[in-house]
Amino acid sequence: MPDKNRTATGVLGGIAGLVGLSAVAGLLVTATVTPAIAVSGAAASSAITMFDNMPSYLEIDDLMQQSEIYAKQSDGSDVLLARFYDQNRLPVTWEQINPVMFDAILSSEDPRYYEHGGVDIIGTTRALLSNVQGGVTQGGSSISQQYVKNVLVQKCEKEAPTQEELAACWTDATTASGVEGYQRKLQEMRYAIALEQRYSKNDVLLGYLNIANFGGTTYGIGAAAQYYFSVNASDLTLSQAATLAGMVQNPNTYRIDRPERETNGAADGYAVTTDRRNYVLGRMLAEGKITQEQYDAAKAEVITPAINPTEQGCQQAGGAAYFCDYVRTIVLNDVAFGQTPEERSAALRRGGLKIYTTLDLDLQFAAEKAISIVPATHPNLDLGSTGVQLEVGTGRVLSMVQNRKYTQDADQSAADAAYTSINYNTRYVNGGSNGFNPGSTYKLFTLLNWLEHGHSVNEVINGRQRNFTVLTDCDGGTQRVSSGEIKNFEGVGGYSGTPMKFTADSLNTGFLAMSEKVSVCDTNKIADRLGVEYANGFKTYIGNESDPNNTVNVPYDILGSKNIAPIDMAAAYATIASNGLYCPPKAIDAVFNSDGEPLPLPNTTCNQVLDGSVASTAAYALAGVINGGSAAASRPGDGIPVFGKTGIHEQFHTWMDGSSTKVTTVVWVGNVKGQQRLDRNSANGYSLWRMRHTIWPAMQRAANAKYGGDAFAKPDSNLTRQVQLDLPNVVGQPIDQATKTLEDAGFSVNVGDAVDGTQAPGIVERQDPGAGRVSGGTTVTLSPSNGQGLAVPNVVGMSRPDAVNAIRGSFGRDPSETCVVKPGATGPGVVTSVNPGAGSIVNRNAQLAITYERDNCS
Predict the structure, then answer these.
(1) What is the DSSP letter of 763?
(2) Closest Cα partner for 620 from 579, 664, 570?
(3) pLDDT in tens, 608-654
(4) For a designed S-S bond to 625, which of 10, 50, 629, 759 qualifies (C-beta 3.0 to 4.6 A apart)?
(5) pLDDT of residue 776 exceeding 90
(6) How far apart are alpha carbons 156 and 567 in whole angstroms?
């Protein structure tokens, strides 16, 4: 609020105004003081007509008040996180003000307050004469008129969309000159008279003390007492009350919170304000409100400010500052708080909202401690880290932390990298972050896609390093991924296995194999259904070609190449824990206006977006990740069932996402900007890429200790069934070809030692098991031929000489012979058996044996 300036612009204008005001003064005297006085003259008639035509009803709006954001402690008590205001005001009741304050303000501003009807004609006329004659500018306004002026200024300020227009409200209301100025004065008088016909004197006086400016952004006696003297309005001393009463005439001149000023600063003992205070004390003495002794004692006091700044903004929330800022952005963006950005901003800074949030301070403090292992700065990379926790089944945000300190001061963040205004946990609209690559935590959506298509997590497919033909588009379009283009973590070659195993091991090639059967487009659509989109607001899947938020589906999507906000991933994993119920993140439990009335909340309706059978089976697979899989290092070890999923994006970003049935926790550690490898850097004794495995279990244990957790729903029997596959016959194929044939069909292959066979060397002589329907996951043993095998001829039933000749012809040697006597047999004997048996494959150097029968073996 600017200092006042003299507004009279000339003798002629002043005389014209004096004539008009004198006429109206007569009318006002007639109406409010002495009915017998008459008014006459053309000027009077004109002024009276103008006065009568002015509006008389003034709507008293709610005071512009600070809005406050709260969190709850374990005992249920509310803790103030932050406040926001254009006007720092603490409204007080009549009983909460020391009576000496009423005496001080009335003695100095309106000693006849309880005698007039809203306008003090004597004071007004005296002020007008002084102004016209070029004397010291005087306001001459009664307390009621000053209240009217402040109400009008506040009406203007409430509707001002910009700071420039807001500042102009005071200027326009106080510095208008000439005819416009006198008309404004008349309007104030008209309103003041009507005001006192509707409200009691005490109500008007209290309203004035609660609305008046006391310098800068300090408004109302409650805030002024706290700010300047660190006391309640009920505890003001005589000297303090006189000091504050003196301020209202020219607030920014008399304020005492600028000790550095050469004039009216600490060096001269706030001389200007002291003179003004002493004037007020003198008026109180003259009005009989204080004794001479009280006057002398108060006048002798040195003005001693005890400045108690009322901090505003989320920086006062400490470690919860980023959560506070998240709430702030919700208010500024959600239509529940106003249809336009201007209305929403006004609601936050002027509406006196009481915002009660979802933040759990127990979990918040535990999260702050957990993430403290990540330094705010690092010499080798732009290091960031976040942690966020959601309540399963409601979406309530229970904690939100990051490694850097919060500031909205651009100069501070530019000068010190430990500070930032960007909330890494949220989308751009809620904190300025463009998100981060979630890596393998995004594989959740391929798993869900697999299950929604009826596939079992125990179905065996070929997840080996190879060429892949990935289904990318929803209309069946594909893209080829060459062998080696996408590799597995730490160079693992892959294997034929199940999605259950692929998930536990986070096998990239396994998920590429799954995406040969279910499309990337459908995977991204599921992510969208679970509330995941690009942090900048774009959709995660390709939609209408004319949609400006269109995005292309590519194989890399399934491995987490998109920029996603951690809070979105938390909501998605919470959906699995709640058996398919998606709940948008919710940060506000209740909002009340300045009158204590509840207001509508942002829409955070929960919806069933997954079939329970799919969600429960996904939870079953994810439990395997933390119970012996890639997330084993994050296992809390407290007995509460949890599931989880790790994510690493090229060692630039690392994630750990997981949940109990009660609370979901997501942790990210990575590059805010740039691409420096985390596995080649450390801090505070931790390898950066492993920090997530320290932060996540600490946060989840705190949640488990407070909220507990139940067993997850049992997986669907159909989605966990063992799948029978057709095992092809590869006998007669070269070993390499046979191996590929079997692996492509989803089988593992074991190549045994070469065996005697009739096939050429290196050709499959036999397989075990043989061709047919077998369980998925079966390992097939292949036996290559050494080329040295011959089939034993079937000589049973032949005569002995014929059998010997047949064996000699095949093996080049005679067999050994055994004769068995059989009475009645005729001829040279009949062969009854051959060893090895007929058709057996034996080494060509093997010795065969035959048995024959004849009537006499001697």
Answers:
(1) B
(2) 579
(3) 999 999 999 999 999 999 999 999 999 999 999 999 999 999 999 99
(4) 629
(5) no
(6) 39
Rounded-to-integer distance, Cα 599 and Cα 347, Å: 12
For residues 673-698, average pLDDT: 95
Model confidence over 581-610: pLDDT tens digits?
999 999 999 999 998 999 999 999 999 999
**Matching residue, tokens 């008279």:** 193
Distance separating alpha carbons of residues 380 and 751, to the nearest angstrom: 48
Buried b (16+ CB within 10 A) or exposed e, 829-848: bbbeebbeeeeebbeeebeb
Q: Do the bridges between strand 830-835 and strand 849-854 make them parallel or antiparallel, or are there none, so unpaired?
A: antiparallel
Are 246 and 277 in contact, with CB atoms under 8 Å apart?
Answer: yes
- 692 token code pair: 């997530």
- Show Cβ contacts of residue 565 under 8 Å, excluding neighbours closer than 6 positions: 425, 426, 427, 433, 435, 535
Give the whole-angstrom CA distance, residue 710 versus residue 156.
56
pLDDT in tens, 440-490: 999 999 999 999 999 999 999 889 898 999 999 888 889 999 988 888 887
CA distance 321 to 413: 15
Report the C-alpha gap between 798 and 805 in whole angstroms.
10
Using the structure block, give the residue that is written with the tokens 């000091």. Answer: 243
Dist CA 279 CA 413 (whole Å): 47
Q: Averaged over 200-229, what is the pLDDT? A: 95
Tell me how far apart the alpha carbons of residues 249 and 108 are, in angstroms, rounded to a whole number: 9
Q: Give the contacts of 340 (CB within 8 A, at least 6 positions apart).
A: none
Mean pLDDT within 754-762: 89
Give the span between the Cα atoms of 658 and 643, in whole angstroms. Answer: 5
Measured distance between the N- and C-terminal CA atoms of the chain, rounded to whole angstroms: 138
One-letter amino acid for residue 456 of the chain: S
The secondary structure element, H or E, covering residue 656 is strand 653-659
What residue has token string 């463009």? 434
Handedness of CA 438, 439, 445, 448 (dihedral sign): negative
Q: How far apart are CA 695 and CA 770, in angstroms?
A: 51
The dihedral region occupied by 206, where left means phi > 0, alpha psi between -120 and 50, and beta the remainder, is alpha
- Report the mean per-residue pLDDT for the chain: 88
Count of Cβ atoms closer than 10 Å to residue 765 Cβ: 24
d(CA 445, CA 653): 19
DSSP codes joined into one string, 551-572: ----GGGGGT-S-B-HHHHHHH
Closest CA to 589 of 82, 84, 78, 83: 78
Q: What amino acid occupies position 145?
A: Q
What gap in Å lies between CA 730 and CA 742, rounded to an integer?
Answer: 8
The residue among 233, 255, 215 whose CA lies nearest residue 96 is 233
CB 448 within 8 A of CB 573: no
413 three-class SS: helix
pTM of the model: 0.80
Question: Which are the contacts of 52, defined by CB distance < 8 A and separation ≥ 6?
Answer: none
List residues bridging with 665 in a β-sheet.
389, 658
Question: Confidence band (pLDDT; 50, 70, 90) for 141?
Answer: confident
Q: For residue 256, give the DSSP letter.
A: -
* 19-35: pLDDT as tens digits: 444 445 444 444 443 33
* Six-digit token string for 193: 């008279």
Q: Over range 493-505, report the average pLDDT.
A: 93
pLDDT, one tens digit per residue, over 667-683 is: 999 999 999 999 999 99
**pLDDT given at position 744:** 82
Closest CA to 665 of 567, 561, 527, 534: 567
d(CA 170, CA 326): 33
Tell me which residue of 598, 574, 599, 601 sits closest to 588, measured CA to CA. Answer: 601
Residue ranges of E strands in 540-652: 581-582, 588-592, 607-608, 643-649
Start-end of H helices in 351-429: 361-371, 410-415
The helix (H) or strand (E) run that includes residue 609 is none
Question: Do 333 and 432 form a contact (C-beta atoms < 8 A)?
Answer: no
